[in-house]
Predict the structure.
Amino acid sequence: MSADAKPKAGLEDVVAGESAICYLDGERGVLAYQGYDVHDLANADRGASFEEVCYLLWHGRLPNRAELGDLQTQLAAARILPESIIRAMKSLPKVDGMDALRTLTSILHHYDPDANDNSIPASYRKAVRLTGQLGSLVATWGRLAAGQGAIDPDPALGHAANFLYTLTGTRPSALAARAFDVSLILHADHELNASTFAARVSAATLTDIHSTIVGAIGALKGPLHGGANAEVMKMLLDIGKDAGPEKAVEHVRGKLARKEKISGFGHRVYRTEDPRATHLRQMSKKLGEKSGEPQWYAMSERIEQLILAEKKLHANVDFYSASMFYSMGIPIDLYTPIFAVSRISGWTAHVLEQYKNNRLIRPRTDYIGPKYPQQFLALDQR
Ligand SMILES: CC(C)(COP(=O)(O)OP(=O)(O)OC[C@H]1O[C@@H](n2cnc3c(N)ncnc32)[C@H](O)[C@@H]1OP(=O)(O)O)[C@@H](O)C(=O)NCCC(=O)NCCS
């Protein structure tokens, strides 16, 4: 590769393929799934449900009532986890939620009726099952980690409400269910982000869909990607519940002075407000007030103003989702797994798209190692 053709570090701005799933304009702050603006899909009153968005990502169009009903029935069946998975969950040592999710997703493959069928129809069935299962996995993991028993999903509830019900044991309010539904919609897909790229690279070898998702979960776990939402909440808790916005500013100024990155800010693609943050900010405020702990939002708002003024960086998806999930009483260890509960829809849509028009993804490196050829010396001569 010639020097002037060299891509920027981290493959910044490199177009690595074609996709019909997600349109992202970082300059204008536009995010759209199959052409539908995420602001319309995530509208709190007139928007879509997460299940409609899943259908959209997988089929390229919104479902009619009958199609949505079929999908809801399939998801409801998938939410009932095999007993062997609950046993496997109980047998794990006390591990991080993302580690548990990665291991258990891999185990799910062994119990899937289509485990040995990598055809497109079978992979689609697995995509639907994985989407239903991941919600139950994360909620049940959360309950077991808190020393409580597993709760059976309720087929009458949608995906978001079921998640909250099987996590807390209480049927959520309409406000909480819709807020969580909207957060699932906002996290569903994001073009060629690191975990989706990892999934597509695996898919391009024609490996099975569970293997592609296990890799994606591993990539999402990192603090530069999905792991950032948990880091944001840890920072807010470090600052302290009663510290107030000015103490929060002082704390963050200290981090900036030490050249530390502030989780929840900055983005490789957006140069303006992350459209997902717009909704999450509003929901964080509303749910914070409702929970009687508005201080998390108040601190977050001041931190956002500071980072924008000092670093010209905007809040990303992970900043306000942290205080929003906290106000809903969700344990911090589940924040990044919840990202996966939603992103499984986008990951699987991309894997199916890759399978349908596949060529092995095998780029090159620019070699910067020792000059070739080096003289080889046998072990006893070195
Ligand atoms: C998202 C992220 C990984 C994008 O990284 P990137 O495109 O490689 O950008 P860089 O890390 O090269 O950052 C460019 C500059 O902005 C600064 N910057 C970027 N994000 C920052 C942050 N969150 N806090 C403080 N400074 C930040 C960098 O220090 C760098 O400054 P420099 O040029 O003076 O060295 C990065 O913004 C980040 O680490 N954010 C925090 C983690 C996070 O929230 N991840 C979730 C993403 S949705």
